[in-house]
Write a structure and sequence with these properties.
Helices cover about 40% and strands about 15% of the residues. With about 400 residues, it is α/β, with parallel strands linked by helices. The chain folds into two domains: about 5-45 and about 285-385, Aspartate Aminotransferase, domain 1, CATH 3.90.1150; about 50-285, Type I PLP-dependent aspartate aminotransferase-like (Major domain) (Aspartate Aminotransferase, domain 2). The strands form three sheets. A seven-stranded mixed sheet has the order 2-8-7-6-5-3-4, sandwiched between helices. The termini are far apart. Bound molecules: 4'-deoxy-4'-aminopyridoxal-5'-phosphate. 4'-deoxy-4'-aminopyridoxal-5'-phosphate binds near residues 100, 203, 235 and 246.
Length: about 400
């Protein structure tokens, strides 16, 4: 019995780029002291107060089916947070709660793309993007950015492939590059979306992790509110990755359609998880700042470790929990460097090539281990890179 084309080719059929990661995990399981700078997850766990709220909600009986679009309280809290952060009037009717940002990415593409439609995304990209687009039957087409532009997308590159496309997916602050899109970049993107009548899907799951510059949601730009779907999540802002709670924010008619999708797929998010998320949002900025603080510190540690040499150069580390490091001075590919570093120093990083063509010759480090180990890892990484440079 054959499986559908859609599921068989969801990942595009090639390597998923996670070979170094799996090798590191095997070494660790075998007892090797591997330092893992690979995965985008906090080294702290969900705040005990949030877990307390979750426990109380469950004990109070919120364990049955919850409202499919999300509880009224959580939708209203998310809307209030977005309105406060962006100034764009937003109500519960603009919000649908989803099981994490990933489900929101899928739902957003499902809402705007038909079978065979072209859906654009920016390269380098978060690993699931092309598969998510294939998952709704659309055709993923990358827009390649350049290291020389610090991976800020150029309007001309989007324009060149936008004819006939349905949507454009962007992500700022960006995984994997750690770059925050500038006002000029976002204005240029908005112009292309209007010129080619594209939906803009804006993945803003790292919106609380900004170290340099300002996070701008493109939904705030003139005439973009009706064509922008914002993807958000509690995963990164509140260290709630395992709780699976996120949202789509968009025009009311889109949200109404998405509720039909949720009814026929996820049937919503558990009520006690939503109550915990409502509680967490109610704690406001201080809790978000507490969760983001370790990455701000490690960003400074990254810059310090790279100081005084130019073999390993950082792409501007402006946001999110990653630093993209340019190792082209070693003459190695990102993949060769990551593999050799793992063998020589037992430090696991992600090759830039796992995130698309544009980040070749780079490696991504996730700033997700404790400060001392992180500093040690970066110092050894730089020293290793120096040994790889020819005479
Ligand atoms: N978008 C980006 C850019 C991400 O890095 C991630 C998680 N690593 C997600 C979306 C999805 O996160 P979640 O489903 O946990 O909200």
């Amino acid at each position: 019995m054959e499986l559908s084309h859609r599921i068989t080719y969801l990942t595009g059929g090639g390597s998923d780029g996670w070979d170094v990661f799996y090798r590191a995990r095997q070494m660790k399981a075998a007892g090797d002291p591997v330092l893992e700078l690979t995965i985008g997850e906090h080294d702290i766990r969900t705040h005990p107060d949030i877990l307390g709220a979750m426990h109380r909600a469950a004990m109070d009986g919120h364990t049955g089916y919850a409202m499919v679009p999300g509880t009224g309280a959580l939708r209203a809290s998310v809307a209030a947070r977005i309105a406060a952060r962006t100034g764009v009037p937003t109500t519960a009717a603009n919000i649908m709660i989803t099981p994490g940002g990933q489900a929101a990415l899928f739902a957003s593409h499902h809402a705007v793309c038909d079978e065979g439609d072209t859906a654009l995304y920016i390269d380098p990209y978060y690993a699931t993007y092309p598969g998510t687009i294939r998952g709704v039957g659309a055709v993923p087409v990358p827009v390649v950015t350049r290291a020389a532009d610090h991976f800020q997308p150029q309007a001309s590159a989007i324009d060149a492939v936008a004819k006939g496309a349905k949507s454009l997916l962007i992500n700022t602050p960006n995984n994997p590059t750690g770059v925050v899109y500038s006002h000029d970049t976002l204005t240029a993107i908005a112009d292309v979306c209007q010129a080619h009548d594209l939906w803009l899907i804006s993945d803003e799951v790292y919106d609380t992790q900004v170290w340099d510059g300002t996070h701008i949601s493109p939904r705030t730009l003139p005439d973009m509110g009706d064509r922008t779907l914002v993807v958000g999540s509690m995963s990164k802002s509140h260290a709630m990755t395992g709780s699976r709670v996120g949202w789509v924010c968009g025009p009311e008619h889109v949200i109404e359609s998405l509720i039909n999708l949720a009814t026929h797929t996820t049937y919503g998010v558990p009520g006690y998880i939503q109550d915990a998320a409502t509680y967490a949002l109610g704690r406001g900025d201080p809790l978000e700042a507490e969760v983001a603080a370790p990455f701000a510190r490690r960003r400074a540690l990254t810059l310090r470790a790279l100081d005084g040499q130019n073999i390993v150069r950082a792409v501007p580390v402006q946001g999110a929990m990653y630093a993209m490091l340019d190792i082209r001075a070693t003459g190695m590919t990102g993949e060769a460097f990551s593999n050799a570093l793992l063998d020589a120093e037992m430090i696991a990083t992600m090759p830039g090539e796992s995130f698309g063509k544009a980040a070749a010759g780079h490696i991504r480090v996730a700033m997700t281990i404790n400060d001392d180990d992180y500093t040690d890892a970066l110092t050894r990484l730089v020293n290793f890179a120096k040994t790889q440079v020819g005479p």
